[in-house]
Amino acid sequence: MSSDLMMNQPSKTMSKPSTPVSGDKKDATEKLQKVLARCGLGSRREMESVIEAGLVSVNGKTATLGDRIGLNDQVSVRGRPVRIKGEDSLERRVIMYNKPEGELVTRKDPEGRRTVFDHLPRLKGERWIAIGRLDINTSGLLLFTNDGELANRLMHPSQQVEREYAVRVMGEVTDEMLKALTEGVMLEDGVARFQKIALVGGEGINTWYHVVLTEGRNREVRRLWESQGLTVSRLKRVRYGSVSLDKRTKMGDWTELNPAEMDSLLTLASLPLTPQPPRMPLPEPRKKRKPVHAIGGAKRKPKH
Length: 304
Description:
Blueprint: E1 6-7, H1 23-27, E2 30-31, H2 32-38, H3 44-52, E3 56-58, E4 61-62, E5 68-69, E6 75-77, E7 80-82, E8 94-99, E9 129-131, E10 139-145, H4 148-155, E11 163-170, H5 175-183, E12 185-187, E13 190-192, E14 196-201, E15 207-213, H6 220-226, E16 231-240, E17 243-244, E18 254-256, H7 259-268
Parallel strand pairs: 10-16
Antiparallel strand pairs: 1-14, 2-5, 3-4, 3-6, 6-7, 8-10, 8-18, 9-10, 11-15, 11-16, 12-13, 14-15, 16-17
């Protein structure tokens, strides 16, 4: 079988809300959900849901989706005032996290299982937003940011941001299968394909490939291989856009991106490169790491 790279061509106030009507005034305002996302309260999609739920007020009145605001408007989310930030004043931060298998990409788990957010540094008045997701059985690179607009752009299908995975496949892989996987396979939620596939080593049940996608549908890598009657036994994300997982970040640890890496991400997201002030080091997370239990296995009893 050829190992060559296969590519697919192709406080509530009484002030009056500022509702701009034309010209320069409109240019000085932005969509409410975009501003809230930039303030680090969540992704743009999450902020749209919060607005639709009636949990956001602007100048004392309940906001609606489509409202625009300026820097001087008074905004509250769930009754708490929000300090509005302009694009130039945002202290943007991005970290890479090397996710182990067995962690969930969710803020809280009702079953008490550990989540990726348990091990991230604390932010004051903001929250980390995951740029994409990985399922519980997938390890590797996860990016987090306090800038919801950056997260939204890097996840949006229109940006065509590449995600690269290392995959261990069980079963005999033929050239016909590889051709089908790069030309397109019909899945339950539509046609999907790998943009690139490369054989990187191994044989038999220990054959490793690197594959590239430009979208992030649920379990898409696994489902594509399963469509050919094959099983993915290991899956690890190794790159997201311009950021690759490297030796700086051990399993279960995080590393803040340097200015050059930040600029590459901003360029990829078509966002302006704004000068950033010197940043204080991020603090360590509050929680201690919980032991990992085998997926579907019994929990070990503590030793006495």
